[in-house]
Amino acid sequence: MELERLLQSQGFGSRKMCRKLIQSGAFAIDGVVHDNPRESLDPTGLQFTLDGESWDYREHVYILLNKPEGFECSTSPTHHEGVHSLLPLPLAVRGVQPAGRLDQDTTGMLLLSDDGPFLHAMMSPRRHVPKRYVATTKHPVTSEMLQALRDGVLLRDETEPLAATDVMSLSSHEIALTITQGKYHQVKRMVAAAGNRVEHLVRTAIGGLPMGDLALGEWRYLSPDELLSLPYEAPGTGK
Ligand code: URA
C-alpha cells in the first residue's frame, strides 16, 4: 500500500494532507524517516510514529469506551458534547461510530468501530445481542417489580411486551437486568412500566463481554480474543 494512502486510511487527513506530512519527515518506522509518499509498504502489523507518536496500523478499529454522563452518542450532537470528543482525532476522522446509543445521562460500556458489518451485527434487532445494565431506582425494589420485568411489560408504541432476563436485585434501590432489544429509552421505560423510576443507569456488558476496569471517559482497543467472543462473524475467522 502506498504510504500516503496508508496514512489516510488511519485517519490522518486527506490524501494531500498525508502527503505533506510524509514529505515533512513526520513519518518514521523504527526511528527511520520515510519521506516518499509513494513508497509501497505492507501494512500488516506495521508500527509507525507520526511526529514522534506511536501508532499501529489497523485495518479496522474496535473500541471499548466507558461513557461518562453528559455525552451524546450522535455524530451530530445537539445539547451535549459527542462521545467522539473522548477519542483521539484520527479515530473520529476515520469514521468510528458507536454500536448503538446510550442516553446522555447513561454511563458505561459503549463499543465503537469503523467496521460496517461489525456495527450491523451488534445493532441488528434480529441478532438479539444481550446488553446488561445496572439501574439505580428512585423507589425501593420490590419482588413485584422484578417479576413484572421478567414477565414482560407493554410499552407505548410497542405491539408485544418486552421482557428482561437475569433480573436481580443488588440492593434496596439497585437492580441488574439484561435486555436483547435496543428500543428507545428501553430500560427506563420498562422500569417505569414496572412501577419504579430509573435514577441512574450503567451498561456493564454487551454480548456477554463485561466492561471490566476502565475509568469513566477512558477507552481502549478490544483485544483479538474479546472481539472473537462477540457475536460477530469477522471475515477470515470462520466464526
Ligand atoms: N435503556 C435506556 O433507557 N437508556 C439507555 O441509555 C440504554 C438503555
From TrEMBL:
Plastid as a keyword?
no
- GO MF entry, a single one: RNA binding
What would be one Pfam family of this protein? PseudoU_synth_2
Instruction: Indicate yes or no for the key word Isomerase.
Output: yes
Q: Which CDD domains match?
A: PseudoU_synth_RsuA, S4
| Annotated family | Belongs to the pseudouridine synthase RsuA family.
The record ties this protein, via NCBIfam families, to:
pseudouridine synthase
Tell me the protein's name: Ribosomal small subunit pseudouridine synthase A
Protein source organism: Pandoraea faecigallinarum
